[in-house]
Amino acid sequence: QVQLVESGGGLVQAGGSLRLSCAASGRSFNSYAVGWFRQAPGKEREFVAAITWTGSVRRYTDSVKGRFTISRDKAKNTVYLQMNSLKPEDTAVYYCAGDEKFWPGSGFEVWHYWGQGTQVTVSS
What we know:
This protein is 0% helix and 49% strand. It is an all-beta fold. The protein starts with a strand and ends with a strand.
């Protein structure tokens, strides 16, 4: 029932910043856990960050800790991924995912709803 749309991707120089948005349409997204995943060409889709429906628990993959921050604005049905100190290895298509569970997990296969993805390219 939930439609997710990512935005905010683009091309940025190494060391720069981007903020991705994941907007839910149709129904309220306030009770869903939301995660960010990314997939680079030739690689598997990997977990990046997630936030529980309460917003009280955040998780990040080790490679982005200290650089990325996930947050949500329940009033706007939107989740954000602030990405700072970007590196070329962050280049990928970034997807947001949602699920009715409090905390689905870091495996992409357990998430039920997906956006279309937004491209992030970091140049060196």
